[in-house]
Amino acid sequence: MSKQQQSKKAFSIFDHVLVPKHEIVPDSEVELVLQSLNINSKEKLPKILSSDAAAKAIGAKKGDVIRIYRKELTGEVQYYRVVV
Amino acid sequence: MPRIKNNNSIDSGEAVGIVAAQSLGEPGTQMTMRTFHYAGVAEQVPLGLPRLIELVDARREPSKTLTDIYLENDMEKNYKAVEELAKALEYISIEDVCSIVENFSKKELRITVDSEFAQANGITIRDIAKKIRQSMGNAGKVKYKSNHIMVRIDTAYQKLRRLSMKIKAIPLKGIRGLSKATVINDERNGIYFIRCGGSNINEIKKIEGVDYSRIYTNNVREIEKHFGIEAARNALLKEIRQVMDLQGLPVDARHIMLIADAMCMRGAIEPVGRHGLSGRKSSVLARAAFEETVKHLVNASIKGEEDPLSGVTENIIIGQTIKLGTGKVRLVMKEME
């Protein structure tokens, strides 16, 4: 492979073993998510920076809620973060 | 929405944070205070308590950064291929191969090449001379003979020192930031991988044959920068677990998860302690009870801060029931109509 082809190699951070699947929660579902977590405002969710590599990769904007499909040793969990 | 298996779910009002702190703190007292481990790289890597403190403090860089590089599937079983790549990784600049003597009266630099070292790394004196010539443009003359390079300049001699600094920093081969690459045999999986000092994910991923999906470094901040906060949390989890397991003090994963989650709450890794989690508690009394008591109390009284008395510490200080376990439940009588 030539040098030029090398630089064109595409990297998706979601290929990496440490990065779980991220997805933007549609606005219509946000309310349900908050209800299931028993909180009244999305400000109370853990945060993720809008400059975060994963948030950028899925094109999340400030105020979006991101659902993260974590695969833990204890089982699969859905975790939520709000973009700030 | 099934969030956790029901038989593992914890009761509402259980003091999970305190249990987690105890579960990590008690084995911490049994850990060897100062342990170093020979990790293939000919340097000492802190383990045990010093490493745990490093992780929890969320240092910019660990005292010894390591990166594990795996090759793509077909190559990782081939020792030769792995070794070849490892050799190409180590960062070598002119400073590492040569010694430079400045001669101000003659306005020249005498560069002596350590030919044995250069040969071992596949660097020829011609390459070095060429690189120097390139970096100088036409500011002077470069000549080489056996293992000496002479650089002569025509401009003011004051510039000689600056030039020698510039020459010293010229990269010859490898990736900036990486040192001491060693091939390690993972016998369990029958593969070889490279472990090198330093980290530079940005450059490593561009190398042909490197498996991008498995690049791993013990520098959690670097992982945060490249793969985001969720990956950093996973790395933090893995590192803390590794420290505990290597000391023969296994801790339940959930305690570590709680700590890692708390450290990653705000979107960036935060240290535990005065400048991090404990210093940002919402309650004045809880902060005052931890460290810098006077500072917190004085600032709070100037600002007129309020304390909702919802935490444990505050309520112990003023002698109320703490809002945990059975203390969390309140009885309200229904008024008769």
CATH domain topology of chain A: Eukaryotic RPB6 RNA polymerase subunit
The CATH architecture designation of chain A is Alpha-Beta Complex
Strand portion of chain B: 15-25%
Strand order of the largest sheet of chain A: 1-3-4-2
Count of strand segments of chain A: 4
Layout of secondary structure:
The complex is a heterodimer of chains A (84) and B (337).
Chain A: H1 3-8, E1 21-24, H2 27-36, E2 47-48, H3 53-57, E3 65-72, E4 75-83
Parallel strand pairs in A: 2-4
Antiparallel strand pairs in A: 1-3, 3-4
Chain B: H1 16-30, E1 35-38, E2 44-47, H2 48-56, E3 66-69, H3 79-89, E4 92-93, H4 94-97, E5 98-103, E6 108-113, H5 115-120, H6 125-136, E7 140-145, E8 148-153, H7 159-168, E9 171-173, E10 179-186, E11 191-197, H8 201-204, E12 216-217, H9 220-227, H10 229-246, H11 253-263, H12 284-290, H13 293-303, H14 312-318
Antiparallel strand pairs in B: 1-2, 3-11, 3-12, 4-9, 5-6, 6-8, 7-8, 10-11
Your description of this structure?
The complex is a heterodimer of chains A (about 80) and B (about 325). Chain A has a single domain (about 15-85), classed as Alpha-Beta Complex (Eukaryotic RPB6 RNA polymerase subunit). In chain A, about 25% of the residues lie in helices and about 25% in strands. Chain A is built from three helices and four strands. Chain A has a four-stranded mixed sheet, with helices on one face. The radius of gyration of chain A is 16 Å and the shape is globular. Chain B is α+β, with helices and mostly antiparallel strands and about 325 residues long. Chain B has four domains: about 15-65 and about 220-265, PTS-regulatory domain, PRD (Orthogonal Bundle); about 65-90 and about 175-215; about 90-175, 2-Layer Sandwich (Gyrase A, domain 2), CATH 3.30.1360.140; about 285-330, Orthogonal Bundle (DNA polymerase, domain 1), CATH 1.10.150. Chain B has helices at about 15-30, 50-55, 80-90, 95, 115-120, 125-135, 160-170, 200-205, 220-225, 230-245, 255-265, 285-290, 295-305, 310-320; strands at about 35-40, 45, 65-70, 90-95, 100-105, 110-115, 140-145, 150-155, 170-175, 180-185, 190-195, 215. In chain B, α10 (about 230-245) packs across α11 (about 255-265) and α12 (about 285-290) packs antiparallel against α13 (about 295-305). The interface between A and B is medium-sized, with 34 and 32 residues.
